[in-house]
Amino acid sequence: MKTVKKIVSYSVRAFVIILFSIFIIGALVCFFINARMDYEGDEELFDAAKSTSVTHFYANSAISGAYAPIEMEVTAFGAEKKVWYSADEVSDYLKKGFVAVEDREFYTHPGVNFRRTAGALYNYIFKKGERYGASTITQQVVKNISGDNEISASRKLYEIFRALRIEKNHTKDEILELYMNVVPMSENIAGVGFAADRYFGKEPSELTLAEAATIVGITNSPVRYDPRVNSAQCIERRNTVLRAMLDMEYITNEEFSSAKGEPLVLTERESGDGYSSWFLETVMSELTADIAKKYDLSEAAARLKLIRGGYNIYTTENPYVQSALEEIFEDADALPKEVGNGLDFAMCVCDSKSGCLLGIIGSCGEKRGNRLYNQAEAPHPPGSALKPLALYAPLLNEKKINWASVFDDVPVEFNKKGEEYVPFPRNSPAVYDGIITLKDALRQSKNTVAVRLFGMLGARKIFDSLKNDFGFDTLAERAEGYSGGTVSDLGVSPLALGQLSFGVSLRKLTEAYTVFPSEGTYTEGRSYLLVTDKNGAEVIKNPAVSKRVFAPSCARIMNQLLMNVVTDGTARAVSLKDRVDTAGKTGTTSASRDKLFVGYTPYFTAGIWCGYPTKNESVAGITPSHLEIWDSVMTRVHDLVDCEEHFSLSGLVERSYCKDSGAVPDAVCSLDLRGDRIAKGYFTPDNAPSEPCTRHVLCKYDTESESLAPEDAVGENIISISLVTAPERKFPVDVPVGDEKYIYRPEKEDEEDEE
């Protein structure tokens, strides 16, 4: 029996040896045939990580396009701190701790521990034995400077050869020094220098044995062993590190016992210490992507290059705007009480003319971390806030509609569910007014009119415009939904009612709205303008990219239409309109789970979102509302300007029109029982009402019976009135329509006579 066991054991070992040999041979083949493996890039990253240069960020104090770098002022993004510590400036406890717990054979292997790699491979294949990592400190350096963490055999092969090459070009001390300066810690910091200062208020050379072991332990799982969040687990991990150091005879039994019993005492953290602002994180995200593309780097490597590159980064941030946002959204008294139960807000402010981002808030409350989930950059369904961009402006631009165009505000269709007929679409509030002008349909956000406008344009045209003209890259032509199944935004609910499958970010939506105050020209949003090196030489330039989307006349009419939304529509709560021309559009998603408002003036465009990110609770009735908070921010922001500019009316004509026909009114239009049906609006000369109204019908009316009278009727109680002819309305169920008693229905009178 023992002989059989030995044979099996030897066979398994032989199999592992053969498998490992194949692994090595495969690696060699990959090494020689993969011409794209640029190991010189690792040397560049190695040097970049060693850089002691500090990257500076600058904010812009100018408004409306004066973005010359010489006028920018440095922002308070944190005091400059030492970012690199040589091996001599680091406690021996740290060095020995990392070697003991991460890579005991660090000083003897060539960069890869082939024995441990074989063991890890064996465990992975046969699911036996202790699960342990095979990466050496050198291999971890490769991952940390390149950001290459893909879980695949090919990546592991590349990592091995890259580690071997780094060992060939650098000493062990250089590699360990780099490792200690870039190793990830909790709270999104990196390196033992920052960790020593953050947690213990010390230089890394001053740490006690217990403090050093604590920092070493954090690196195994920065979230799990965060000393401020999970102190008990952090201490347990610290003691594991101490045990490893004892096993390696780096410390004595007395030192081990003393350090193991030492309490975890952390320095008090200053408010905001080490946390980047929402704006700075936005810049970092955009620049990381641009640097990764420019230098063909991974995201992590690009971020490292950005932080350690010694660059001068000129951003579009306006310090006053960002400060106003932070003060209001960090003030619990200025926010609804429901914030404590998960309600969240996000807001961003852009320059109305340049489209540049001036300030951004990704979540309400004091910011307590880096690289947090940013609700302003996250996609949310825009609801009716999509209508001006998707429907009204495109059709107005094509002159298929005008200010006075009329539609019938009644259900477009009825969907049968069981024995019931459900009208579609529903308005909010759920009332139907009947004949309505374009101006009032937008002002009241009528879904019925939006669906009819959708039919005039078509799904494909709307979809392509939003994607190509405004960069709405979350639109889904055909994709798998969050809950499975297939979803598509090529439909009426997504494009007419704003119920996009994957939403659109508040920032993109806000930037898109700058097309209106900028005379129909859309400029892609930017958070930075220029990056130079420490000598002032240009590294990356981020120029404005603009595109004419709508004619200036279209944008000017849209400004006036959207001003009505603020003056006497769904955004009437905004008081900024009393100080400066203010326009905008509200948006609400199904069951009021999200509420949005994107509003603008000739100076600034701002969007706000309100909702429960992880709940399906309604935000209806929240006080103070998102409109009030938007108003507070924008009122403060407008202290920066004189507020004397108005939206241009150049090239437009003001004309009277009949509100029931959209045509040139006559005397009969003023005899309506509801009063004068004549209004004024703005048009281009070639798209203004020109035909006379034929919709009003002159009738005799009996004021005593409050009913129509025969045409030959006379008397003091008989007056002349006008009624309105309307499209035929035949519904399978009773649907109250607001204007029904003012509609001329001669066929009904004939039927009554026959009876």
* Average pLDDT metric: 86
Q: What topology, given as strand order, has the largest sheet? A: 2-1-3-15-16
Radius of gyration over all CA atoms, rounded: 34 Å
β-sheet strand percentage: 15-25%
In percent, how helical is the residue content? 25-40%
**Judging from the principal axes of the Cα atoms, what is the shape?**
elongated
Number of helices: 23
CATH architecture of the largest domain: 3-Layer(aba) Sandwich
The total tally of domains equals 4
Q: List low-pLDDT spans.
A: 31-38, 63-80, 749-755
Query: Helix/strand/pairing class, anyone?
Result: alpha+beta
The third-level CATH topology of the largest domain is Beta-lactamase
According to CATH, the homologous superfamily of the largest domain is DD-peptidase/beta-lactamase superfamily
Main sheet attributes: strand count, strand direction, barrel closure: 5 strands, mixed
Give the class-level CATH name of the largest domain: Alpha Beta
How do you describe this structure in short?
The protein has 755 residues and is an alpha+beta fold. The protein contains 23 helices and 25 strands. The strands form 9 sheets. It has a 5-stranded mixed beta sheet, covered by helices on one side.
Provide a descriptive summary of the structure in words.
- With about 750 residues, this protein is α+β, with helices and mostly antiparallel strands.
- The termini are far apart.
